[in-house]
What we know:
Layout: E1 2-12, H1 18-28, E2 32-37, E3 43-50, H2 51-61, E4 69-78, E5 87-89
Parallel strand pairs: 2-5
Antiparallel strand pairs: 1-3, 1-4, 2-3
Amino acid sequence: MMKRMRITVKGIVQGVYYRYNTQKRAAEYNLTGWVRNLRDGRVEMLCEGAEANIKGMVEWCKEGPAGAYVEKVETKWEEYTGEFSAFEIKY
């Protein structure tokens, strides 16, 4: 069963290739959706895929790439739409 989750990451997560590494990790987990920086310094992502793969992404988000310092990860399950064909970085 396919799922959808919105993930918000707070900490030192901008300027450390967090979005790029998130996109790479999403490909490994076979997830679709997007990731973007927020004006307040957080990173937000919306991903769709198998529940186990999304949970794996959440665990990765708690550490992030080298150079990141993750303070807090917030998650919210949403209704799956199947609207994405890839996982993109939004600018």
